[in-house]
Amino acid sequence: MADPWLPADHDSEQEGLRRQVARGLTWTFIHTWGGQLLSLVVFLILARLLTREEFGLVALAAIFVAFAQLLIDQGFGDAIIQRPSVTRGHIDTAFWVAIATGTLLSVIGIVIAQPLAALLARAEPDVAPALTPIIQVLSLLFFISSFSSTQQALLRRELAFRSLATRGLLAIGGGGAVGIAMAFMGFGAWALVGQQLAAAIIAVITLWTVSPWRPGLEVSRANFQELFGFGIKVVGSDVLTFLSRNTDNLLVGIFLGPVPLAIYAVAYRILDTSQKVLV
After folding, report:
1. Is 60 helix (H, G, I), strand (E, B) or coil?
2. Backbone phi, then psi, for 139, in 5-degree steps?
3. How far is CA 27 from CA 24, 60, 73, 225, 278, in A?
4. Interior CA angle at 94 toward 85 and 208, to 5°?
């Protein structure tokens, strides 16, 4: 029964909000469960097709890649989501900061790949020459991913969970298909590299297809400062979370080598996925 003390359109507004929340929860469920399970299936197939040495090489490089990706948008995406209102200037500033940061990180990754490979392959120095080009190519992910951070933040702000779920599942499925095909063709560790690059490219294309926003040039220092104040706190929190969850991988890789890291990564991935799906 409608509350006589509320406006007539209040009930319809509340009903619309409930439906939006219900749809959002449904698509979030599909994204979480579907994405985790599909990702696990692809992961296990590739782990079966590749040797432990090949798998371990990319797992070593992934430690650096995962850390650098935390820095791409400098927390500006989260800052856009949490603000009560955002202007065109805020969004444009966040986008171009992400592009500049992603480009810089890609260049840095390519330049430092050789000494970084030597550090990561400390337990088995012989694998450093093979690890160096993998780090260099995976560094392109920073530039590619910089085109999706702002679009993703806008969709999250608008509660466009269907678009986000579609983007996630297409990226995982498409990247997985490329990786598995490359593994069957004998590309070895590069199959995992191809998988990650393909997933990132598909994610960008999908986001730009479903989102109507396009970047402009309304960039200002004032907008940067407003977003940076919140964003730096997000980055700090993300870095601490990364260290707590990846220090073990780093230590295993550096002191034991890529093969033990591959075994550890497969076991941990199965455990982590099962926990995320069941919680």
Report:
1. helix
2. -65, -20
3. 5, 33, 25, 34, 17
4. 95
What is the structure's pLDDT at 196?
94
Note whether 113 and 132 are within 8 A (CB).
yes
Helix ranges (DSSP H) in 30-75: 35-49, 52-69
Give the span between the Cα atoms of 221 and 80, in whole angstroms: 16
Question: Are the beta carbons of 57 and 189 closer than 8 angstroms?
Answer: yes
Side chain identity at 261, as an amino acid letter? L
Query: Within 10 Å of residue 169's Cβ, how many Cβ atoms?
Result: 17
With vertex at residue 236, the alpha carbon angle to CA 234 and CA 141, rounded to the nearest 5 degrees, is: 80
Average pLDDT over residues 253-274: 77
163 closest CA partner among 109, 205, 199? 205
pLDDT digits (tens, 9 = 90+) for 58-78: 888 888 898 888 888 878 888
Please check whether residue 164 is in contact with residue 156, taking contact to mean a CB–CB distance below 8 angstroms. yes
Taking the CA of residue 72 as centre, how many other CA atoms within 13 Å lie in the half-sphere pointing to its CB?
A: 25
Question: Taking the alpha carbons of 162, 168, 173, 174 in that order, is the dihedral positive or negative?
Answer: positive
Quick: pLDDT tens for 97-124.
999 999 999 999 999 999 999 888 887 8
Q: Which residue has the tokens 């550890």?
A: 264
Any long-range contacts for 156-161 (C-beta under 8 Å, 24+ apart)? 156/77, 156/81, 157/80, 157/81, 157/86, 159/20, 159/24, 160/210, 161/23, 161/24, 161/27, 161/28, 161/31
Separation between Cα atoms, residue 9 and residue 49, nearest integer Å: 59
From residue 238, give the alpha-carbon distance in Å to each of 228, 241, 243. Answer: 15, 5, 9
